[in-house]
Records
---
Amino acid sequence: MTKKEIFINSAFKENSVWRQILGICSALAVTNLMLNSLILGLGVIFTLALANFTISLIRNWTPRSVRMMIQTLIIASYVIIVDIFLKANMPEISKQLGPYVGLIITNCILMGRAEAFASQNKPWDSLIDGIGAGLGYTLVLIVISFIRELFGFGTIFGFQVLGDWWISWSIMVMAPSAFFLLALLIWAVNTYYYKAKA
Amino acid sequence: MKDSFWYPIVFMLIMVIIFAGILSVMYRFSAEKIEALQRDSYQQAILGTLAKAIAEAEGSTMEEILAQYPDSYQEYIHEQSVTGFERKIYIAEVDGDVVAYCFEIHGKGLWGSMQALISTSIDLRTILDFDIVNQHETPGLGARIEEDWFLGQFRDRLFVINPDSEEDVSGSYEFIAETQTPENDQQLRRVTGATITSDSVIKMLRDEINYIYNYFRNNEL
């Protein structure tokens, strides 16, 4: 596969959320505000890309019996680096994201891409795969959070776009709406992309 | 070689040393900056809760007091400890006169502890301002208790109704939905999707004001 194909594959064709149903917990949790979704998405892109690159770089020396421990160690280290960086340089954003930066460690997309791609492919291909998978995940977060924030608060990225006449839909702020929207998104992608293509 | 007994152990050990080393170095170089940012942020929060009282006594504006940080903090605010009282106390003084108090208070939220600052009038009965400095609530839901519209509801609130009674020290405040408009002064808007967190905030305020007020009825501040 060319690098472009790797990127398109990981970001869209084999999107971690709508195709592989990974990373659902955070997709449900943070998506009532677009800013939180964007920042978490950027954190995941950074961690995923560098973790993939590092795991791929040492793949020929990594013993199979301890590979998952090594992958967890690398992912956790990059997450802590993101956490320290945000605390030292963007304290407000760090405060807003609260526990979610640390929880990137538990995002199944990271272990999924490490196992499925990075441990078997070259470093630069793995880096691109990581960026693509991270962007695909961020795209889903942004789409869902756009709908939830708009109908739930009448805002986009915190800016009021719907006037006083708008009565906010409380359900959109709460977790159940993320379930409905995610299910609708998966249905729409399956119907209009995968089945149409088949 | 990769199949030998010792190889995975040695490899794992080397990787742990490398990554722990990188993190230690990064933390060592950032720790001072992080501590300074956290200290500034905390002091600014204290100043923020006391700024209105200072500005009124000083004849200036809140914005001016806040803009002059850290000088204004050094000039007007000092920390005081009272033996046996288990909260941090910050006193705002203008020309030698106490204009307000600020207390660090604690409570329990849905997921963990909450740390907040309240500034009170000199008689300790009214909350002048309120700020949450640390909480572990759900981002986008409970964490919205830090938003200004929510915090602002507690400004200039009389919490100690009857100063002669040890029991009746909390207001009869009740929560209504975020989307509703309060019909009287006793109604406060809760954060949508965060009922427990909203209730925890008011419980923390009631408990802490109760404790502070009753403590200083019998002890000097």
---
Amino acid sequence: MAPDVTAPPTTPTQPPSRGWLRWRASGVTSATSQGLALSFYSLVVLIPLAALFSSAFTHGWGVFWRDATAKEAIDAYRLTIECSLVGAALNAVAGLGTAWVLVRDQFPGKAIINALIDLPFALPTVVAGVTFYTLYGPLSPVHLTLTGTWVGITLAIVFVTLPFTVRSVQPVLETMTFSAEAAASTLGASSVRVFFTITLPTLAPAIITGAGLAFARAMGEYGSVVFISNNLPYHTEVASSYIYSLASSQNPVGAAATAVAMLVFALIALTAVSITSRRLVRGR
Amino acid sequence: MTKSPLWLRFAVIVYVLGLIGVPLGFVFQRMFAHGWSALVSAFSDPAMRSAMWLTVRVVVVAVPVNTVVGVGVALWIVRHPSWRSRLIDRVIDVPLAISPIIIGLMLELAYATNGWFGRAEAALGLHIIFSYPGIVLASVFVSLPLVSRQLIPLLREIGDHQEQTAASLGAGPVRIFLTITMRSILWATAYGVSLTTARVLGEYGAVLIVSGNITGLTQTLTLNIGSNFENYDAFQGFVGAGVLATTSVLILLVLGVARHRERKRHEHLA
Amino acid sequence: MSISLEHLSKSFGADQVLTDINDIVPDGSLTALLGPSGSGKSTLLRMIAGLETVDEGRIVLHGRDVTTLPARQRNIGFCFQDYAPFYQLSVFDNVAYGLKVRRKSSAEIRREVEELLALVRLEDFANRYPRQLSGGQRQRMALARALAIKPEVLLLDEPFAALDAQVGGELRQWVRSLQHELGITTLLVTHNQAEAMEVADRVVILNRGRIEQAGAPAEVYDAPANDFVRSFLGPTTPFEGEQVRPHDLALVSDGPGRPGQVRDVIRLGFEVRVVVGFVDETSSWIQLTHDEAQRLNPTVGENVTVARRH
């Protein structure tokens, strides 16, 4: 039941019958509670989203475009996307390996390793951020200076996103029977071949989903990244820092425009992930 | 199942310990680096104390609100499908996919005094942004899906035959919920609540924007840590970080217990 | 007093699931709602229970019009196919649930639950949990739980479908005798015609949302109202342009009949099936008892004469 990064496939059952609850509360109370739920979500999520879009376009498309494609913005997007891609890809591999070991092996201390995986979920990003800055920055006890480098940023991203890739693959591995692999072995395939031709395609949708979630999270990451990156505009400024600097320098429209651009990127990424993983599932 | 090769096991252990274990240990090392008395006096720093108190006040409101809403919405979506609940189902995961900075910006644009509802708020005497309610609002936003996401697949899997049977035996909806539904979703809810608490405790970017980061007034513990670091008071920062690292480890333990209990409940069904 | 179903109809969206259902279930009887999947029998049962709304028509339980009453006010006992045990409660608490809802005193609850557990022979399992019970035991617990509230009507949705043949068979007989002993009007949904015939006093056959025929098992079997009922309730084989029962055909040594040739002999132990082909390219199969087959000893290729037994 890992932190539910991937909603497990729900088997469609008979639609829940309404009869037994339909008369429990009069239509009025049922409608009011539904209305309450909708209002709550509107106030908290939908209205602010609308306000963001509206603000981004306050001065029309031209200004929006100019803000969203400013040189500093483009540099920020590029840095963010690159580091997020590398981090997600690295963790896709590491996550698979980690899940593999956790599911198939027994060794002393396994429970600790399993629990540690969730730490980046539970730990505040700023704690990770200042720790990484101190550990791998100018005061580093191991004499590493990764501040102001994309390596440092990617390292922070890797820390924060490992749980996503591990926990998306782990449940799938746990329920796999490996009977297809056994069949392939009897047909003479080596374990390497079996892995790449049988196991990996089965796990591909989960791996992709995990990597996609990791990527989306990495793109928006702030607290863990802002310290080690040093925030040099045009060089080591991630998108979220850039948006923050715009917002705090009385340029809400510019901030909103850049934010909308980031949301579009995130949407594209998530859609691509969901299409790819669905296609991979269907092809089996 | 055959075990995985030794080199892989070794690599994974080194990776996880190095990537995650080392920084965790480092926080505690720094926290205690100057000895016990330095640590105690760090705790008497007024900025940090008010930050801790504010954080507690936020958690105490945001987590129960999200739990109630999360459970209610999950039940609603699974047991009463309608176009409204389907809409909410699509929208539920949105907070997890958006950068916290953008979340803070969105909330500010909607609810600051020069924002959409600014005038309405002023008329009602409400101050949301740059004040306690705004911090609670931001915390609720970022953790909104966490309970629902645990419960929705679970409720679907469990089905409602038990509840229908209880209804046929004469139980009303409240009794059904308390005696039947709640027991099956207990550990999954505990898991979601733990994740929510961790998220609320640890939120940085969104609260940074929405609170104004006014030391002693609207500065949560996470903001306090960041601010101390920026002012080159690394030790004070690490003390705060150590507090939150400790709560994180405690939450990890609770997560582990909840996961274990939930798995046991699940296994015993067959 | 009984269950009266009057002009009941139900649709799920564009799907018309039940059309103009009319029936009266006699008081104290065990009636089977029999039909293939998709015939609407489960939906009908749930409508009677109050777990599904009614689009048109009326349901009258023991003189009360319950059409718009919610399930918890109908005083019915309902058993799901998966038994729906309350997993988090002990067997005792499961059975006691309805009694607690009715705020009986703990002494009274204890007495009644113990009586019921003895009735279903689960008295040693009172403190166990459903997960520790076998399928058949969970079924008995579900029955005890439903009976605890002294319902006027007992509704069972495919109660034996999830059990293996032996356990299911035993349980069937036990439920039948229990029902006779208690005399509660019972409605049982099943797709298994042998089960319905074995257990029920009365069978209502449903197909695609309509009642095809209703009556005692012997009645519907011997005098089926149409081809559907005939073929659903038992095996049929074509003979002289009609569908007849294979056991109504015989191999005769003399007398009138159709000449044919034995194509295949299938020995099932208790019965033997003989497939006979005729000159006009049609074939029928004949059901012989074990003894008959021993006596006649049909062999493939043999020339035989086939006639109806009566």
